Amino acid sequence: MLPLVIIGVGAALVARARGGSFEALAATEFRVVGLLAGGLALQVVFTSWHPEWISDRMTLAIIVWSNAAVILFIVLNRRFPGTMLMAAGLALNILVIAANGAMPVSERAVEVAKAPRAPNEASIEHEILGPHTVLGWLGDVVPIPRGREVLSIGDLLLIAGIGRLVYVQTRARTPSGW
Fold first, then answer.
1. Residues 89/156, Cβ–Cβ less than 8 Å
2. Which end of the chain is more exposed for a tag (fewer CB within 10 A), N or C?
């Protein structure tokens, strides 16, 4: 997600230009980092590797539970600014994925963003948004033409929360933590 990188790096650079330090950001002490690492690792593995012995239903469960682990990490670190935006964004993504069995993607948004391709029927992570879609407005419906991506409202909240966290922690005079 290019917008995530741009916002994160941009927030750090703006905070640095306003007197913050990258050392303050690096000194941020999060609790239970293993939840974040485990959740993200499961997502990476099971969205890029599809062994025959794991059903689509099991892959979906892994995606939902790995996101839940990341949300738990975020909630346990809620004292940091931006974390509740991040948790809300991921929760919305989990909700629409669980309701549909995959993240619905607007074909029109894919066209507008000139994204590489729309999802196909073989994709467990994404499906084309259609009349059968539940909570379609929470799917990937926001075209980002410069990044050639399509994002969801949940993605936008997640990105905003990360930007806030990075900015505030870079500006911190003393490192925040537990």
1. yes
2. C
Token couple for 108:
């029109």
Residue 4 near residue 162 (C-beta atoms within 8 A) = yes
Residue 178 falls within a domain, yes or no? no
Tokens 């909700």 identify what position? 95
Q: Exposure of 32 by Cβ count < 10 A (0-12 exposed, 13-18 middle, 19+ buried)?
A: middle
Count of the separate structural domains present in the chain = 1
pTM to 2 decimals?
0.88
DSSP 33-92: HHHHHHHHHHHHHHHH---TTS-HHHHHHHHHHHHHHHHHHHHHTTTSTTHHHHHHHHHH
Provide the residue range defining the domain that includes 69.
Answer: 2-171
The phi and psi torsions of 75 (rounded to 5 degrees) equal -65, -40
Work out the pLDDT band at 48, boundaries 50, 70, 90. confident
